[in-house]
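A.,

Following up on our hallway conversation. Structure tokens first:
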């Protein structure tokens, strides 16, 4: 479930192309420090459709941009519902939403985008969620259940008070839903390796949660076919590349820019007035993906698969570096 912010201030315009003006119409507490926020078009009517795993950008009135996964499956939505947790180390996003954003206030919404799509016809789907990572997983679970597809959920939190939708989950059949509470397990974490090992060979695995959980998940599924393993990071796996020392050439305009030490490709292009699409600036949302014509990128994103990164035919310019002297982009 992406949740990140933008350090580069977006231009202030009434409603930028591609953005929707929406109003917060409801906020419901679903766990400790976690609420479900409902947004609807200011003028009413349907919002752009999406599939399970999709997220949107919230362009907050304080200038920040944050990404949040959509909670409920809906092919013709009149509302977007986001489950958001107040982060004690918030850089301004969740803190603003909880403290400053009130029912009736309006925001601009970008998207939806989907870097975490559900394989809907899989013979078996095994879902793993940690903490607020339940948001995209919940959407997948509800979609699979509504379509009578086989699924299993493993959901882990520090305690019962932190688990969203606990009352609903406790009513579901044991075996389909497996709940883990660290404080009731003597501080032990969910045994991901055992859950994966007990799953059939044809299972597709999905996981969203804190980075240590995702690392354990990727280790537990390392011997499974890569196309059956799906993961979404909402904080970056690696820091952005800032070593610099290379040139970026824009093939369409034939302009070229030197990337100095301490700067990112996106920063240099933005400061030069190049029209670039971006959102999170952390390599977790996929908005700035750009086709590579030549050169060897140094990938630092958390979106592209290992195979996609090895192909070197696209790159997230918000966080990538370059292993060659020049990187030619299709821009």
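Then the amino acids I'd put at each of the 331 positions:
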């Amino acid at each position: 479930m992406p949740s990140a912010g933008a350090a580069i201030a977006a231009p202030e315009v009434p409603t930028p192309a591609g953005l929707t003006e929406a109003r917060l119409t409801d906020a419901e507490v679903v766990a400790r420090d976690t609420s479900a926020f409902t947004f609807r078009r200011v003028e009413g009517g349907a919002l752009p459709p999406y599939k399970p795993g999709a997220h949107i950008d919230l362009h907050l009135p304080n200038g920040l941009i944050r990404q949040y996964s959509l909670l409920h499956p809906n092919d013709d939505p009149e509302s977007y519902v986001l489950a958001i947790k107040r982060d004690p180390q918030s850089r301004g996003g969740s803190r603003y939403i909880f403290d400053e954003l009130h029912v009736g206030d309006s925001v601009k919404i970008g998207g939806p985008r989907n870097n975490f799509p559900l394989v809907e016809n899989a013979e078996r789907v095994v879902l793993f969620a940690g903490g607020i990572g339940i948001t995209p997983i919940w959407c997948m679970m509800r979609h699979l259940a509504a379509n009578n597809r086989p699924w299993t959920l493993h959901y882990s939190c520090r305690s019962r008070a932190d688990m969203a939708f606990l009352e609903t989950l406790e009513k579901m059949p044991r075996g389909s839903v497996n709940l883990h509470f660290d404080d009731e397990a003597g501080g032990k974490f969910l045994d991901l390796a055992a859950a994966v090992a007990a799953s059939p060979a044809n299972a597709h695995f999905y996981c969203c949660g804190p980075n240590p959980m995702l690392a354990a998940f990727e280790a537990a599924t390392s011997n499974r076919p890569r196309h059956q393993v799906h993961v979404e990071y909402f904080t970056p796996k690696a820091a952005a590349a800032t070593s610099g020392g290379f040139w970026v050439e824009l093939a369409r305009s034939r302009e070229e820019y030197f990337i100095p030490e301490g700067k990112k490709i996106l920063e240099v292009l933005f400061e030069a007035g190049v029209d670039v699409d971006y959102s999170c600036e952390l390599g977790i949302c996929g908005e700035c993906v750009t086709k590579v014509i030549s050169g060897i990128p140094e990938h630092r994103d958390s979106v592209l698969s290992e195979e996609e990164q090895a192909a070197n035919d696209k790159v997230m310019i918000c966080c990538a570096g370059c292993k060659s002297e020049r990187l030619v982009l299709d821009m």
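The chain has three domains: 19-113, 125-232, 246-329. Curious whether your intuition agrees with the design.

B.
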